[in-house]
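User: Please fill in residues for this 122-position structure.
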């Protein structure tokens, strides 16, 4: 059982499989704890499937942070053009929601200034 923490790259989608089974699909981005030589943090993308409760799908929105418990597999393939590809997949057993997207800082035009003492009616 692995633990992953990352941000959703898009809103989750529910898919109906044969025999009326449903699955929630989503992808998370996980930032590495180090910076590369170019000064950027590498990012891993993990495709996830959650079979237990499709009712969670409306809460899995782009940018939200989630903590996942599940089994990770890697797969590799070569496409018809001969180009190699690889993907990480996680079969999720449990999801913990950690909140929404980063809050935007208020700009001067969005900020409501406090009234000055001279503007008070008394």
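Assistant: Residues filled in for all 122 positions:
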């Amino acid at each position: 059982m692995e633990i992953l923490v990352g941000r959703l790259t898009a809103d989750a989608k529910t898919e109906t499989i044969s025999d009326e089974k449903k699955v929630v699909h989503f992808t998370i981005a996980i930032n590495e704890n180090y910076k590369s030589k170019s000064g950027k943090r590498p990012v891993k993308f993990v495709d996830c499937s959650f079979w237990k409760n499709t009712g969670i799908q409306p809460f899995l929105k782009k940018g939200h942070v989630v903590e996942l418990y599940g089994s990770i597999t890697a797969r590799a393939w070569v496409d018809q053009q001969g180009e190699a590809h690889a993907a990480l997949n996680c079969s999720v057993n449990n999801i913990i929601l950690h909140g929404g997207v980063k809050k935007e800082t208020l700009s001067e035009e969005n900020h409501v200034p406090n009234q000055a003492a001279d503007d008070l009616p008394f």
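For context: The chain has one domain: 2-101.
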